[in-house]
Design goal:
2 domains; alpha/beta; Rossmann fold; single chain; about 15% strand; six-stranded parallel β-sheet
């Protein structure tokens, strides 16, 4: 069996290329000798190079290329994917870029009789708070999303709630399989001993630094909490097109630090030295950062969106309303001040991740999924 992951987004540095290799590498680890795994991608410079030993990487550098941003580039994408699938006798092709661009991959795969699998991490959100221009752009994205889902032979989504939403959007539930990205418990594991927060509490956010992740509400909550916890700190880890704006906005607020994305080892260290992971997003699918924190023994406060209510139910964390600063403040106080509840969350969270989202569980599901496609 030959499987090819495709990214139609332009990769601009080696760190981004390494990050995108995580899923193909995990697929290869799960399938072993059953499959040959390829990764087809576009890079902004020929100097960007990275390829793990067990993955066949194919990077294309086209001068002036901007991924699928124009009709001409879209044609180039389709043609290059088609040629690669034919030359390498690919059986199954999957997307690693935004799923609403999957239609490009699907068209290429159809031209060479290759099976098409769409990976869906989330859906295109529409909010009444968006400007007219942004709502119009999102509506166009939704049309491409519908087209992509129709063209897919099979769909992998990360959570049950996302599967239900896709079915509600007129996608045949029979072609949807739920497989989470999984957590490597040999890397993400608790530190020795559960530390009890004192007055010096360290809050952590990990993810894209954009308004839709609730960064505004997090900053407002932080300013309120500083009145109760004199040694309060907040670390915001990640990139995003609004990061510089938030850095300027918090320039005069003591205790807030912005750091870049970290390696797995560095991220685990950050989880261990923090007291609460806070994820106040307006929308989510199944955020891996929550699973990683749960595996590392870091209590989580997150908004009641996507699959998070399932992840944090049964005393595994604190759920708060999106866009509600006061509820966010109350949630952080609860997990910080109630020691018994906090310890129960830590214990229950690790057991949940181990039983539902460990790599061994995800590997079994992955093998069954690809074998079922091959046998169909």
């Amino acid at each position: 069996m030959k499987i090819c992951y495709v990214s139609t987004d332009l990769i601009t540095d080696e760190k981004q290329l390494k990050f995108l290799h995580n899923i193909p590498v995990r697929t290869k680890s799960a399938l072993g000798n059953i499959a040959e795994v390829h990764f087809f991608n576009y890079i902004s410079s020929g100097s960007i190079q990275y390829c793990p030993d067990n993955i066949i990487n194919h990077s294309i550098h086209i001068r002036g290329f901007r991924a699928s941003s124009s009709l001409l580039n879209s044609f180039l994408v389709v043609n290059e994917i088609r040629k690669y699938c034919i030359a390498n006798d690919i059986d199954i092709v999957l997307n690693l870029s935004n799923h609403y661009k999957f239609y490009l991959i699907a068209i290429a795969a159809r031209l060479c009789n290759t099976k098409k699998v769409a990976r869906i991490a989330g859906i295109v959100p529409i909010s009444s708070n968006f400007s007219f221009r942004r709502r119009f752009t999102k509506r166009i994205g939704q049309l491409f999303e519908i087209l992509s889902l129709k063209l897919a032979d099979h769909i992998i989504c990360l959570s049950g709630s996302l599967k239900n939403e896709l079915a509600r959007r007129h996608t045949d539930p029979k072609k949807i399989t739920v497989i989470s990205q999984g957590v490597d418990l040999s890397i993400f594991s608790p530190a020795e001993g559960n530390k009890k927060p004192e007055n010096k509490i360290h809050l952590l956010f990990v993810g894209r630094v954009v308004n839709a992740k609730g960064i505004n509400e997090l900053i407002q909550a932080y300013k309120i909490l500083k009145e109760s916890f004199t040694g309060l700190r907040l670390t915001i880890c990640g990139h995003g097109n609004e990061r510089d704006m938030f850095i300027r906005k918090t320039n005069n607020i003591a205790g807030i630090t912005f750091i870049d994305f970290l390696t797995h080892k560095e991220l685990v260290e950050q989880y261990h030295k923090s007291d609460v992971l806070v994820l106040p997003s307006y929308s989510e699918g199944l955020p891996n950062v929550v699973l990683e924190a749960m595996a590392c023994g870091l209590p989580v406060v997150a908004t009641r969106v996507g699959n998070i209510p399932v992840m944090l139910s049964e005393n595994r964390g604190v759920l708060v309303k999106p866009r509600d600063v006061n509820d966010l403040v109350s949630g952080i106080k609860k997990i910080s001040e109630d020691e018994e509840f906090r310890n129960n969350c830590i214990e229950n969270s690790f057991a949940y991740v181990k039983s539902k989202h460990s790599l061994s569980v995800v590997s079994d599901l992955t093998i069954k999924f690809f074998q079922s496609i091959q046998d169909a």
